[in-house]
Structures are given as C-alpha cells and as structure tokens.
Amino acid sequence: MSTMTICIILFVLTIILYGTNKLEMGVVGLGGLAALVLFGCLEPNDALTYFANSNVLMMMSMFVVSTGLSKTSLIDRFSAGVTKLTGNSFRRTFLCYIILAEILTSFLNSPLVAFSIVLPLVVQMCEDYNISASKVMFPVGLVCIACCCIMPFGAAIQQTGIYNGFLESYGFTPDFAATDFLIGRWPFLILVPLWAFTMGYKIAPEKPVVPVSLVTVSKREKKPLNPFADWAGVIIFFGVVVLFIFGGNLGIPSWLVCFTGALLTVICGTLTTKEAINALPINLAAMLVGALAMAGALSSTGAGDLIGQFISNAIGGVKNGYVLGAVFFLIPFVLTQFMQNQAVMNIFVPICLLACQAIGAEPTGLIILITAGSLTAFMTPMATSSIPAIMGAGGYDIKSLVKQGWLVSLIFAAVYVLYTMTVMPAF
What we know:
single chain, mainly alpha
C-alpha cells in the first residue's frame, strides 16, 4: 500500500474521530501526527517542525496578548463607548464588531490575527448582553476568513507577488494587480458581513457544543491593574498590531512580533505568569499542529498533485468560462477543507495556467476563483489556522461547523462563479 493511500486513510480516520468527540481535539491531532510518522507518511524531523510552525506560535502568542488586553480598562471603556453609540442594542453592537473584523482582515495578512484582535471585544459583548459565545464566534470568524484578500492591502499585496511569479514562469505577462482581488470579489465585502449578521447568527448553536477552551477575563473576575500595567497592556497590543502590518518591510517575522508581545505582557505585569500560561490554548495548538502535519503529509505524498493532474487532463477541451470557473473554485474549496489554503493555491494556480495555455483562456478571473475557493473553507480544523481558534472560542465541534457552513458555502460558490466569470471572463 502506497504512503499516499495510507495518508488518505489516516486523514479519513482523523475526521471521524474529530466528529465523534470521544477524544479531545488535541489528542486526535497529535495522535494523527504520530500515526503519520509511524506509517512513513511523514519524516520524524519534518513532524517536529510543525511544533515550531509560525501559525502555531502566532496563535498561542496572540491569545496571551489578547488576554492581556482584556484585563485593561480600555476594553471596558471601548465596550461602554460602543454600547452608548449603538443605543445599548446588542444587534447594532454585534454589527459594529463584524465591521471591525472586516476592516482588520483587510489590512492584516492573517485572519487568525484579525480574529485574535476582535476576540476580547466580542467576549466582552457577550458578557454585557448575556449572549452565548457560540452564537457569535463563527459568524465573526467567518468574516475574518472570507473577507481576507479582497481589499488591495495586506494579504492581497503578498499574493499578487506570488501570482505574478507564477505568471512569468509559465510564459504569461506578469500583470496581475492587487486591485484585481477587489474587482473580482468586492460584492463579498457586503455579502459576508450581511450573512454573518443575519443567517450566521440565526443558525449558530444556542450553547457551546463542546466546552469553550479559550481562557478570557470576564468583567466580574477583573481586578484593576496598576496604571503602568494597564497602559502597558494597551501599548503592547497595538504595538503588536502595527508591527504585524509593517514588520515585514523591516524584516521582522510576524511570529516574532506576536511572541515578543506575549513576553512583554508578562514582563510588564499585565498578566501574571500563571495567567499567561492559562491563556495558552494548548488543546487548540495541539490540534493545529496535527492539522498542519496532516495537510503537509497529504501535499508531500502527492495527493494534491494527483487530483490536480486529473483535473488538468479532464478540462483540456472545456471552452465554457463558467464551467472552468466552477471547477477552479469548487476543487480548491474541497481540498482546502483538509489542506492549508496557501498549499492549495500553490498547487492549483500552475494547473490553471497550464490549462489556460492549452485552451487559450485568460487566467486572471480563474486565479481569483482559486483564491476565493481556498478562503471559503471553514468546515474542518485543517482548513485554516483560524478555525481551531474559532472552535475554541465558540465551543464548536466539526458537526456544528458543517451545520453552520454548508449552506453559506453553496451560496458563496454560486455567486463567486457567476460574478467573477462575468466581470473577468476566461474567453
């Protein structure tokens, strides 16, 4: 039996275990990693690298920084200001935080960091209005994921450079622009928040399906900090955000920014060492390590390439832009449920360019759809590093993710293909 076949079998077993909730998600994730090594799907040294993955470090560090911010008086003042502005209306307050999440994910490279920033505010909102976190965390998290890489900032600039490199390598003119993401996806700046505010809230579970596993500081538990620690928590938080946006230009890795912020939160006394340790989402981090390892194994064993080659051969004679658009949205969407979205993009953009060369198609709209399909994946913890954080904050399991995500995924898929292939036709 080939390692690729074994890897797929282990993936299916992992999904089943996640769905049954018989074991902690972190146990399933690390158990899957161990099985991948034991059966030769992953080299031991490669497996170890996932424990030091930048996404894992960022998630753990950002929740320490966010917990530090939640202890400061700024959260109370900000929440009181929003409550006053919205006339003490939960729905209007909820909408404000949805819009804030959309703005943040437009400027940051990481939906995970955008969600981490808005998290303490949403937790405070839930406490103020006595609303279960399970009602709001998935809708807010979905905005952070699905609205990423639309505005021509942050992630869009980063992806533009990658895509132009692919275009040049395959003989196309490297004229892809960051504004192409906005042209091909702008309706979703309205559609995604609208869904989160209406249907997203309506279909979310009334109570957490599994225990909420992110430690936050409630208003009732909060003890006043001394002035220095209070201001330090605020300055550190916003310093991390600013450096996360601009640190790349200075050569500072994003994980180092978040990690240093977490250390300073303790050094400056905003959190005690015990509080910082309690804030670390160990179970979620373990699940994310396992999810990243599984995604890496599926990619390295050739599962993604095999599927891609099959698609390339199958669409060789297709001359209908909408059919091509559906293929290059839906297949990445499905694959990204169990492979990291960046890996899926890197596999499918070359496949798209080869297909476009063969049939004389314009690739820009199809590349946009590959990106959109890879960012419309939120039904498994393998889809993106943001999902484990959202699951922990809202108390969700995979069943509840699928229940909340399947309908909106179908709607987004239909709108994306029809709209993008109309404004950016392949032929």
